[in-house]
Design a protein that fits this description.
With 200 residues, the protein is mostly beta strands. It has a single domain, classed as Immunoglobulin-like (Sandwich). It contains one helix and twelve strands, in the order E-E-E-E-E-E-E-E-E-H-E-E-E. Strands 1, 2, 3, 4, 5, 6, 7, 8, 9, 10, 11 and 12 form a twelve-stranded mixed sheet that branches. A hairpin with an 8-residue loop joins strand 1 and strand 2. The longest helix has 4 residues.
Length: 200
């Protein structure tokens, strides 16, 4: 049953996988004010020597919804809206997937599925070189119920979340012939904040 949360067709069709590792992706916490939400940037960085022309992307992300609650309109696009748009596909909370896979919060899964869509035909595709810093694609903002409890945000990928569904983070770019192809993600960095253990 849990597999249904990821069983959606990608918004963009990718015809081939680029032969080299191309991108790193991470979830990075932002500075939190005392009375504000906890916000996290979703960042990518080019690891290939070639310039990468960024096309559309699908993001699938799991989080522990017993402690984190996505606020209203809590996903913010950080790319130029003239060239990119965002579409929220799924926002599920409190999914009980106990004994399904390795996530320690699987008894109370939250799941985000959203797409960042490049407007085909425009000339505004973002170009990433290896020397450039991290690029923030989106920002996620959550209400944290208990600052002392676990906070986990995990990027969906085959090695970690396949037992919950077969849809993962997907990124695409234009190749040298201006055809859209899938990019290989060379590394993932999730966010995991675990409460300190109290000594007796």
């Amino acid at each position: 049953m849990i597999r249904l949360i990821c069983g959606l067709v990608s918004i963009f069709l990718m015809t081939a996988v680029v032969g080299q590792d191309r991108l790193e992706i991470r979830i990075e916490p932002e500075v939190k004010t005392d009375d504000g939400p906890a916000c996290f940037s979703v960042d990518i960085r080019n690891t290939d020597m070639n310039v990468l022309k960024l096309a559309s992307m699908n993001y699938r992300i799991f989080y522990n919804s017993d402690n984190l609650k996505l606020i209203k309109d809590g996903i913010h696009l950080k790319l130029p809206e003239r060239y990119y748009t965002m579409k929220l596909v799924q926002d599920l909370r409190e999914v009980d997937a106990t004994w399904t896979g390795p996530l320690p919060f699987e008894g109370n899964l939250g799941f985000l599925n959203y797409s960042v869509i490049f407007q085909d035909g425009s000339d505004g595709s973002i170009r990433l070189t290896k020397s450039e810093p991290w690029l923030t694609v989106t920002e996620l903002c959550f209400e944290v119920r208990d600052d002392r409890a676990m906070q986990s945000i995990v990027l969906a990928r085959n090695e970690v979340t396949a037992q919950y569904g077969k849809a993962f983070v997907e990124l695409s770019a234009y190749d040298k012939d201006d055809q859209i192809t899938a990019t290989v993600i060379s590394s993932y960095k999730d966010y995991n904040l675990r409460p300190p253990k109290h000594s007796n």
